[in-house]
Each structure stands twice: as C-alpha cells, then as structure tokens.
Write a structure and sequence with these properties.
A hairpin with a 2-residue loop joins strand 1 (19-26) and strand 2 (29-36). By secondary structure, the chain is α+β, with helices and mostly antiparallel strands. It is 35% helix and 25% strand. A three-stranded mixed β-sheet has the order 1-2-3, covered by helices on one side. It has a two-stranded antiparallel ribbon with strand order 4-5. The protein has five helices and five strands.
Length: 125
Amino acid sequence: MVKAKYQGVLDLGEKLNIQNGDVSETNGVLTVKGTAATQYEKNLLWDEIKAAGGENPSDIVADIKVEDTSVFARHTVKSGETLGGIAKQYYGNASKYNAIFEANTNILKNPDVIHPDQELVIPNL
C-alpha cells in the first residue's frame, strides 16, 4: 500500500536513471536507496517524496547519494532557452544567469548567445 503512495517517486527514479537503486517495504515503511547523477536530481526526488508524504513523512526512508558533487546539475540547451530561464529552472531566480555563464566560459563567449545541444554546467551556489 505504501509503495503505491510513492509510485511517483519510483517512476521519477527510473526516469532520472538512478543508479544502484533498491526499494523494499517492511512494516508499512518504504525504504528507497540509490545514487542520483547530481544534487539537482536528488532534490527532484526529495520534492516528489514530500509531495506524496508531506514535509516529514514517517512511512518512507530514503538514502539518496550524489555521484557528481562538483556541480549542481548539467543541462543540455534546448531551442528557445536563455541563461535566465535556465537559472530560474535550477535556482528559482533568473538573475543568477551570470553564475551559469561564468561556469561555462570555456564554451560561451556571451551570456546572451547559447545554442541548442550545448551541455552547460550548472554550478553549486
């Protein structure tokens, strides 16, 4: 029953390709383990857990590790995106676009010019 409650978390884990995943249920408590690629993906999983179980759920235990702690996320640019829009997606604040620009000066020369399929580092702030 508790597994059904958190099915969205399990589905998101599959979508994010969480590594070393393990899910078990004992006495009405779901235990979820795995390794997310970045902190951003770990945060997405925790947001999904809280959406299903509330701020402090007692029916799930999650041990989610992060494979690459050197960055917050990696983002592949899609057509029509801007650094401000990308900053809003990851940080909730479009004005932090310059942090993304500075972390990617090896491929970006102007914060107003990005191209589809460029892989950007989203730095830890």
